[in-house]
Amino acid sequence: MIKGYLLKHYLAVLITAFCTQLVSAQSKSQVQWISFEQLEDSLKARPKKVFIDFFTEWCTYCRKMEKEVFTKPAVAAVLNNDYYAVKMDAESMDTIRFDGQLFINRNSTKRRKGIHDLALLLGQRDGRFAPPTMLVLDAEFTIKQRYFSYMHSQKLLKALE
Questions:
Q1: Disulfide engineering: 69 pairs with which of 8, 13, 65, 89, CB 3.0-4.6 Å?
Q2: Which residues are 50's β-sheet partners?
């Protein structure tokens, strides 16, 4: 009876350890996305380059990048090690406090969600916003490059160099 209990206990510990290792390995191969609020605190604590991905739920290429690009271990490693990676739904209705200011979605109507003010401020081109929109910023939060289209993993890695 005691042997059976010890065997079950040992197996439970072994399975828990294996699952913990598996989850840890998976989290390292996934991009560790943060919010703008977390970004502000992180930049104050430790300046680092920033990557921002503005997406919308209806954007086919945004979903494709989520499934095919941001899941690549090489992409996740670069974004996790060298950047603070921020992901934001450009149609979010959230009020975001960043850099001492409040940003809202003033363009929302009963029919359409509209584009959030923060996405418009940072990610518009020629007065318009179209997802996917990605930004690369330096540690001082100066925009170095904007990208306005789908990027396969190798192209994104080159852009992040």
A1: 65
A2: 84, 137
CA angle 148, 132, 122 (to 5 degrees): 70
Full-model pTM: 0.80
In contact, 137 and 144? CB cutoff 8 Å: yes
- pLDDT tens digits for range 38-95: 999 999 999 999 999 999 999 999 999 999 999 999 999 999 999 999 999 999 999 9
Which residues 6+ apart lie within 8 Å of 126 measured at CB?
Answer: none
| CA–CA dist 64, 96 (Å, integer) | 26
Say which CATH class 31-160 falls into. alpha beta
Order across the sheet with 133-137: list the strands. Answer: 33-34, 83-89, 49-55, 133-137, 143-147
* pLDDT value for 109: 84
Provide the residue ranges of all domains of the chain, joining segments of one domain with +: 1-27, 31-160
Instruction: Answer whether 104's CB lies under 8 Å from 116's CB.
Output: yes
Closest C-alpha to 48, from 81, 75, 1: 81
Amino acid at 124: Q
89 DSSP β-pair partners: 55
